[in-house]
């Protein structure tokens, strides 16, 4: 099931001449996020997204259909495929270059932490003993952050019919309200 096929459509005005286009009404009052969260904590399987793997591919791998990419994203509190989904190695390097100017610059810049993992400034870092501090290059930081994004939870396939049924029921209820 593709999620947005269930949403009602509206006529959306897009200019001063009152021209309209048919669009999906994403403001429909439904509780998709809460519904998915209900299943996220229980009966989910940990998974590490492989380099270059997209949400639709993960959906196909686990559910036999690419239509549940939205479920994978929502179950992991991901709302932007560009910002929240892990980047492949080529895209990550390109992102680092765009953000910091070059890979060598990203290796030359550092983040500093105390032994609790809190980020601190350089002055505080140097005042701490070596056993109470650690650092990492910005390049390492971006790689670690990207790897952490790749650790996701997959709602177990046997719950798909139940989620489909509840989702359709919630949308139908919202349309009647």
Could you explain how this protein is built, in words?
- The relative contact order is 0.18.
- The chain is built from eight helices and seven strands, in the order E-E-H-E-H-H-H-H-E-E-H-E-H-E-H.
- Helix 2 packs across helix 3 (69-75).
- The protein has a three-stranded antiparallel sheet.
- The longest helix is centred in the C-terminal third of the chain and has 17 residues, at 160-176.
- It is α+β, with helices and mostly antiparallel strands and 177 residues long.
- It folds into two domains: 3-85 and 151-176, no CATH class; 89-146, no CATH class.
- The model has no long low-confidence stretch (mean pLDDT 84).
What's the short version?
This protein is 44% helix and 18% strand.
Keywords summarizing the entry:
two-stranded antiparallel sheet; 18% strand; 177 residues; extended; 2 domains; alpha+beta; single chain
Structural class: alpha+beta
SSE topology string: EEHEHHHHEEHEHEH
Order of strands in the sheet with most strands = 5-4-6
- The gross shape turns out to be extended
Q: Helix fraction?
A: 40-55%
Q: CA-to-CA gap between the ends?
A: 23 Å
Strand proportion? 15-25%
Number of helices: 8
Which spans have pLDDT < 50 for at least 5 consecutive residues?
A: none
| Mean residue pLDDT | 84
- Tell me about the largest β-sheet: 3 strands, antiparallel
Cα-based radius of gyration, to the nearest Å: 22 Å
The tally of strands reads 7
Count the domains.
2
